[in-house]
Description:
Strand order of the largest sheet: 1-2
Number of strands: 2
Shape: elongated
Mean pLDDT: 81
Low-confidence stretches: 40-52
Distance between the termini: 23 Å
Structural class: mainly alpha
Helix content: 55-70%
Strand content: 5-15%
Number of domains: 2
Amino acid sequence: MRLLLGLAVAIAGVAAWARGFGPLVLGLLILAAVLWVRAKIRTTTGPGAVLGHSHGGTRARIATHEAGHVVGARGVGGRVTSAWLTNDEGHVSWDMPHRDLEDEVRSNLTFLIAGEYAAGTGQGCGGDRDSYRRQLRRLPTEDRSRVRSTANRDARRIVSSNRGEIRRVAERLNENGRL
């Protein structure tokens, strides 16, 4: 993403130069160079948060995280509608009929935390954690701790009892970039 942004800034710099904006050109070209170098460094060394659902690591780790979401969704009776990943980020969409608000929130929490448990790290999971907190706030305060505990326990159980499936899904995601 930064590589494309750097290219766009460089093109804008050339266009500004053609119109006689010398100092602006120098600034845009320096910015383009910085963005390009940062994109290259991040691409070759791993860690670095980018737009969306980055995991600050390898594509394989992102695939394992997303596979955790896939298996977590299935573990609570959901249906995965799409899953994809790039070298920088991934995403899983799913749907499930819910009995009530508490059931819906518990299922969503289980789905959200299963990715982190599968990957074995919370690095790059800020988006999931934000969604997790938003889901919890949908419940009355007195129910949150109990539902959170149940969802976390369910996610751990689903991930630990489906390691082989998580590995297989992660391999497919890593190879194909989507399910």
